Recover the amino acids of this structure.
C-alpha cells in the first residue's frame, strides 16, 4: 500500500498522479473500516481525500499552513502528516482526536471543533507572517455548510482587507450536516452550474479572487488549481465541487445520516449500536409535533442540528413551515426566536450547550433586554455530554445565568421537563432556557402541577434536618444518593431540595433553613465557578450556615472518562458523605473550643 | 413648521413632496440644535431624514413594522411617530432614549443598541406574521457599517430562505463609525458607481431581490422605490445612497468625528466639553505606539471603535500595518488575535465591555482552548461606563471568568495597568484580558514590580486584623474608604487586599486569613451573580469566615444615576461600614449564646 509509506507530506510529493489516485482509494478504505469500528465524522472526510493529497503535493506544510474549519475534513490530512497508523491499525485508533490538534503534529495549528472559524484564524496566521516579513502560504479549508456562520462571513469580508497571501479552499459538497439553508447556497449552485463563470459571485462580491474546480475529486485537476494559486499575493478562493461520502454508497445516498456515524456494519451500513429507549430528543420532538398541530403559532428552530430535537427528515416534513432550520447561524436563530416571540409567535430553539455559547450577545441584547418569551432547550449541557474539549457542555450555567432576565430551568425528570416546556411555550412574561439533564432519562410518572411563573421557588422534596441537599438537574439523583448515605452513616435524614431554577436564589426557603440546618450542600452539572452553588454560598456568606458546593472545576477536560472526572471532582455519594462528616467534626470541635 | 403638526405617520401622509422636503429641513435643524445641546448619535440620523419620511409616507406603521439596526438612525423615526417634542423642545429632550424602545411607542419593536441585528430580528417578525397568516410589510433598516457583522450577514443569508415579504433598506453612507473595512465595501462601491447595475452583487449572491436608489436623500425618488417594493412577496434589498451628516458642513466633512457627539457650539462645531486630563485611552495608545515601533510583531486590533484606544486617524496612520480595524466584526477580531498569537505575533485587541459579549464562543474556542497569548483590553466594564441598557458594562466578570484558561486582570491604577499590559504582551503562556477601572484614572506613581506570571497571587497592601477588604479594580478605592471608616468607628484596622486577578482565587492567602480574620469583604465593579466575590464565598463555604459580597444586582439598569445605583447596591463606604457593624453584633451575640 502507498499509504503505509507516507510518514509526512514529503512522501506524498514522491508519488505520481496514478499512485496518488491509488492511495486515495486506500485512504478511503481505511477511513471506512475505521469508521465502521470506531465511529466519527464520515461524509466530510470522504469528500476531501483527493483535495488533501493535492494540497500536500503542492504546498510545503508546515511552512505553508493549512487550517481546517471545524476539523470535520481533517482525517485525510492527519493520515498524510505522520498519523497514518491511527487510521490503519485498530490498536492505534485512539492515538488521535477527531479534531486538528497542535499537540499531535506540527502540521496542525489550532484545536478546532466549532464551525466557521477557519478564515478568521487563517487571517491571523497570515497577518503574523506578514508582520514578521516571512513568506509561505496560508490555506483555510472550509466546507460549504460552515459558510453560513457569522464568523465565516465576517472572515471572508475581512480577508480582502487583509491583503497578501491567503488561499481559501471552499469544499462544496452541497450539504451542511443536514441540507444547506440560506440564500448563499443558490449562488454556490449557480457557480457549480456555470463552471464558476457566473458574474454574480458571492466571493468576488466580498472582494476576493476566485478559481473554480469542477472535478473536486480529481487529483490532477486539484493539483493544477492549487499550483495556479500557490504564492498568490492576494486572498483567493478555490471553490471545489466534491461529493460528500464519496466512495461508500450508503453515505453518498444518505448524506445527512452519514455526516457522522457510530460504529456500523460495513456491508449493510446498519449501526451496531441501537438505542431502543426513549430519550430527551424523542420526548422533545413528540411534544413539539403535537403542540405545533394544535397551535399554528408554535415554531421549532434549529441551527443545522435538527436531529438533536429528534427532527429527522420525515419529521421536518411533517412539521412543514413550523420547522425552521437557519443553517449554521446560531446568532440568527436566537434573534429570529426573539422576533417571532415579539410578534406573538411561540418559538422553541433547540441547541447543544456547546453551541449556545455562540449567541451570548444575542441572548443578552436581542432576546433578554427585550424580554421576549422565547424558549431555548439546551441539550448535552452535562459532564455526561460530549467529552471532546471543543464540545464540552459545562459552561452553560455560568454563562446563561449571568444574563439578566433569562429564566434558566433545570428539570430532573421527563415529567418536569415537559411541564416546564409547556409552561414556557404558553407564557408571555420571560425568555426561558431549559437545561436538559445528562445521563439516562429518568421518568417517574409523577404529575407536575407546579406553577413555574412563581420564579425561583425551589421544591422541598423531603423535609429533614441539619443538612440540606440542593441537587440541580442531572445531579439531583446524586444528591439523593448522598443524602441516603449520610442518613445511613449518621442517622440524620437530610432535607432534599430540587431547585428547578438555576438562575436565581429562593431567599425565603434558604432563610428558613437557617433555623434547623447547619450545612447546605449544592450540586450542579457544570463548572462551579460562577455557577449555581456559589450564589447559594454568597447568600449564606454573612450567616453561620456551612455551604459545600459540588460541581466541576473550571478546566478544559478532553476525551475524558466520565467516572474519573466525577471522582476527581468529589462527585460521588461516598465522597460527599465523607466531606460532610469531616465538616461536622470540625464544627463540633470549634463549638467545644468556643464553649 | 410642518414638523410641529406631526403626531404620527398619518400626518406625514397628508403632506406633498414639497412640504415633506421643507419638513426634512426643519427636522434636520431640530436634530442639529438638540445635538448641540444634548449630544447623541449625529451623522447616521442626518443621512436618514428623507428616507424616514418616505417610509412613513409609503408604509402603514405600526401594522407595517420597521426595525432599525443599532437605532443610530432612529431619531427621525421617533420625530414622526408621536415623539417630536423630545426633539423640538429642550425641556423634553430626555423624554426619549437614544434607541428604539417598545415602551416608548407602538411604532418601535425592539430595544436595540448593538449593531447587525435588524435583519434577523425582522425575519422573526415576518415569520410570526406568516405563521399567523396575517399580512403587512416588515422592513429592516441597516447601515452599511453594520453589514460586516456576523449576525447581519447570517441574517441576509437566511432572509432568502425565509421567503415572503421582507424589505431590507441598506442605508449606504459609505462609512462605519470610522471608515469601513472589508471586501464587501468594494462591492457596495461598485454598485454605487454603476447605479446598482453591476452583475456582481452581494445581495443577489445572497439570494435576494435588489433595488438601487442613487438619490437617497431625495424624497420623491425614495417614495417611488418604497412603493415599488411595498407588499413584495419576496425578500428584497433597497440599497439607498445617503450622505452621512448631511446638512451640517462640519459633519459632512468629518464623518468619523460626527458619528456621535457631545454638546457643541453650533457655529464652530467645537465641543463644549473638553477633557484635558489623561485617560486610559491615551495611556493605551501611547504605550502601544511606542511598543509597536520597538517591536514589529506587536499589533493593535479594533473592531470599528479605534478611538476607544485613542487611535484617531493620525495615530492609525502612524501605526501603519500594525494597526488593524476589522470593521464591525468582533468575532473575527478575536479569531484574528488568536491566529496572530499562534504564529508568533503579539496582538492587543481593545474593545468595550458591552461588545466583548459578542465573542464568547471565539474567546472560548478560537482563543482559550488553543491557549494563545493574545491580550484583550476591556474598556468601560464599569458602573461608571455607559448607562444605556444596551451598552452596560456589567457582565464581563461573570462572562469572562467562566472561560477556562483566560486570565482576567483588574488593575486599580495607571501604573498597574501598564505593568499588566506589558507583561501580557511579552508573555507566551496565557490568553489575558485586562479590565480597565471605571471613574477617573488613578495614577500613584508607584513602580509595579510584581511578576504576573505567578497567577492568582493577590497583594496585601496593608496588614490589619479581624476584617479583610478585597477590592477589585474600580472598587479598590471604595474598599480602602470603607476600611478607613471601619477603623475610625471601631478602632480595628482592616487588612486591605488588591486581588489583581478576578479569574481565580488565591487559596494560600485566603486560607491564611482564617487565622486572624472573621470577616472578608469583597467588592467588584459588575454583577455579583457568578462574579468574583461569590468565588470567595464559595471558597470559605465550609469555614467560619463571614463573607460579604459587594457588587451590582443582576438587572438591566437603564439611563441611571450612578450614585443612586451605587447606593441601591450598598456600594458606599458608609453602608459597608454599617453592614460590618451589624454582622459583628450578630457574631458576638451568637458567641454569647454558644458560650
Amino acid at each position: 500500500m502507498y499509504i503505509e509509506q507516507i510518514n509526512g507530506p514529503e512522501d506524498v510529493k514522491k508519488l505520481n498522479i496514478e499512485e496518488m489516485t491509488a492511495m486515495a482509494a486506500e485512504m478511503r478504505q481505511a477511513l471506512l473500516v475505521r469508521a465502521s469500528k470506531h465511529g466519527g465524522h464520515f461524509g466530510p472526510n470522504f469528500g476531501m481525500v483527493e483535495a488533501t493529497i493535492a494540497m500536500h503535493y503542492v504546498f510545503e506544510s508546515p511552512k505553508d499552513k493549512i487550517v481546517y474549519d471545524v476539523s470535520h475534513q481533517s482525517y485525510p490530512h492527519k493520515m498524510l502528516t505522520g498519523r497514518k497508523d491511527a487510521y490503519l491499525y485498530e490498536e492505534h485508533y485512539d492515538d488521535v482526536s477527531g479534531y486538528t490538534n497542535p499537540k499531535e503534529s506540527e502540521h496542525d495549528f489550532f484545536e478546532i471543533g466549532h464551525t466557521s472559524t477557519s478564515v478568521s484564524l487563517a487571517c491571523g496566521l497570515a497577518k503574523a507572517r506578514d508582520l514578521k516579513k516571512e513568506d509561505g502560504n496560508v490555506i483555510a479549508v472550509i466546507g460549504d455548510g460552515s459558510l453560513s456562520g457569522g464568523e465565516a462571513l465576517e472572515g471572508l469580508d475581512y480577508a480582502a482587507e487583509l491583503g497578501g497571501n491567503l488561499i481559501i479552499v471552499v469544499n462544496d459538497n452541497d450539504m451542511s450536516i443536514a441540507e444547506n439553508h440560506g440564500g448563499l447556497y443558490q449562488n454556490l449552485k449557480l457557480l457549480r452550474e456555470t463552471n464558476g463563470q457566473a458574474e454574480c459571485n458571492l466571493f468576488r462580491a466580498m472582494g476576493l479572487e476566485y478559481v473554480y474546480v469542477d472535478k473536486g475529486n480529481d487529483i490532477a485537476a486539484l493539483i493544477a488549481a492549487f499550483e495556479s494559486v500557490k504564492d498568490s499575493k492576494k486572498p483567493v478562493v478555490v471553490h471545489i465541487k466534491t461529493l460528500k461520502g464519496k466512495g461508500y454508497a450508503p453515505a453518498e445516498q444518505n448524506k445527512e445520516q452519514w455526516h457522522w456515524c457510530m460504529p456500523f456494519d460495513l456491508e449493510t451500513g446498519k449501526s451496531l449500536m441501537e438505542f431502543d429507549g426513549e430519550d430527551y430528543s424523542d420526548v422533545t420532538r413528540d411534544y413539539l409535533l403535537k403542540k405545533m398541530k394544535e397551535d399554528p403559532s408554535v415554531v421549532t428552530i434549529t441551527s443545522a442540528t435538527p436531529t438533536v430535537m429528534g427532527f429527522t427528515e420525515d419529521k421536518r416534513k411533517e412539521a412543514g413551515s413550523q420547522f425552521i432550520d437557519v443553517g449554521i447561524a446560531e446568532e440568527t436563530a436566537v434573534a429570529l426566536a426573539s422576533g417571532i416571540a415579539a410578534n406573538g409567535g411561540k418559538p422553541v430553539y433547540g441547541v447543544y450547550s456547546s453551541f449556545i455559547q455562540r449567541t451570548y450577545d444575542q441572548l443578552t441584547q436581542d432576546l433578554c433586554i427585550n424580554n421576549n418569551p422565547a424558549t431555548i432547550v439546551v441539550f448535552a449541557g452535562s459532564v455526561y455530554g460530549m467529552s471532546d474539549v471543543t464540545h464540552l457542555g459545562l459552561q452553560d450555567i455560568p454563562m446563561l445565568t449571568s444574563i439578566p432576565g433569562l429564566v434558566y430551568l433545570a428539570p430532573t425528570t421527563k415529567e418536569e421537563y415537559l411541564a416546564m416546556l409547556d409552561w414556557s411555550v404558553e407564557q408571555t412574561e420571560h425568555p426561558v432556557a431549559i437545561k436538559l439533564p445528562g445521563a439516562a432519562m429518568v421518568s417517574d410518572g409523577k404529575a407536575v402541577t407546579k406553577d413555574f411563573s412563581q420564579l425561583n421557588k425551589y421544591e422541598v422534596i423531603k423535609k429533614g434536618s441539619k443538612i440540606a441537599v440542593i441537587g440541580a438537574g442531572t445531579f439531583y439523583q446524586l444528591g439523593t444518593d448522598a443524602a441516603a448515605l449520610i442518613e445511613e452513616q449518621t442517622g440524620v435524614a437530610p432535607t432534599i431540595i430540587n431547585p428547578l431554577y438555576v438562575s436565581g436564589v429562593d431567599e425565603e426557603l434558604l432563610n428558613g433553613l437557617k433555623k434547623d440546618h447547619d450545612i447546605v450542600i449544592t450540586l450542579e452539572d457544570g463548572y462551579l465557578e460562577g455557577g449555581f452553588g456559589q450564589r447559594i454560598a454568597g447568600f449564606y456568606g454573612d450567616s453561620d450556615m456551612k455551604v459545600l458546593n459540588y460541581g466541576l472545576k473550571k478546566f478544559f477536560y478532553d476525551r475524558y472518562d466520565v467516572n474519573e472526572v466525577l471522582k476527581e471532582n468529589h462527585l460521588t455519594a461516598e465522597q460527599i458523605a465523607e466531606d460532610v462528616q469531616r465538616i461536622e467534626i470540625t464544627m463540633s470541635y470549634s463549638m467545644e473550643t468556643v464553649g
User: Anything to note?
Assistant: The mean pLDDT of chain B is 95. Chain B has 24 helices and 18 strands. The first helix of chain B runs from residue 9 to 12. Residues 65 and 579 of chain B are 50 Å apart (CA to CA).
